[in-house]
Amino acid sequence: MDKWKRSSRLVDMTRQLLSEPYRLIPLTAFAERYNSAKSSISEDLAIIHEVFQSGGSGELETVAGAAGGVRYIPKIDRQRALDVLKVLCEQLSNPDRILPGGFLYLSDLLGDATLLSEIGRIFATVFAGKKIDAIMTVETKGIPLAYAAASYLRAPVVIARYGYRVTEGSVVTVNTISGSGRQMRQLSLSKRSLAEGSRVLIIDDFMKAGGTIRGMMDLLHEFNAEVVGVGVMVESAAEQRLVESYVSLAAVTEVDVKERKIHVELGNLFTREGEWKDVKN
């Protein structure tokens, strides 16, 4: 095989790293593909790492040893995340979203592939380093968000469902109470969908009191799984939270049906402890 030019190597390596986040790629695999010395490959990876970091799109993690290699960790920089979430808050503030009963229409946002990709990258940044075995959500609106995050975190998605479906096989079922406390529902998860002792990230589109998320936590307890984080796209005001620790991207603080007004702020992402603290609304 002919030796690749450095410019060609850089382009092809970047393409492969971006397409397979979190996959550990041995340096020997690159060296054999491009018919180049490992020292040259290491120099190329240093260039790519610098570009990723300066552009705010992530970083490369090097693992030493015979079984080591390099993996791409997707991230988004603070300013880009802020820009994305300001747009999200602006769109959520549209009074045309108000539905009877004070509910908000979110389906168009959850169908926006570009927005979902950006939100997925934000969640991937927040929960980077958590060693996630699976991402869990509940049918149906949380599914696009979960897959958006999974595409960057390189983790499978498991879906909790209301009630039982024969196509799921044997299931584990728990009872959960809606955020309003007025309705009890059953959440089920197929026994085949999650291994015992998994480390799980919960992703959902909307949270009020957190009854649905609490139900997912109860389900995971039955699998002896560990909840490593909870991410929600939108939270709304509630007198009592059933979930203590979570990351929200936007917060609906008021919905005035009569005046047709919605007040939306940035979620707790920029006020919680961490690298993005202290950004004002």
From TrEMBL:
Keyword annotations: DNA-binding, Transcription, Transcription regulation
GO BP term (any one): negative regulation of DNA-templated transcription
Domain Bacterial purine repressor N-terminal: 5-74
InterPro entries, sorted: PRTase-like (IPR029057), PRTase_dom (IPR000836), Pur/Pyrimidine_PRTase (IPR050118), PuR_N (IPR015265), PurR_Bsub (IPR010078), WH-like_DNA-bd_sf (IPR036388), WH_DNA-bd_sf (IPR036390)
Occurrences of domain Phosphoribosyltransferase (ranges): 118-247
Pfam families: Pribosyltran, PuR_N
Gene Ontology MF annotations: DNA binding
Family the entry assigns: Belongs to the purine/pyrimidine phosphoribosyltransferase family. PurR subfamily.
Assembly with partners or alone: Homodimer.
Protein name: Purine operon repressor
Organism of derivation: Lihuaxuella thermophila
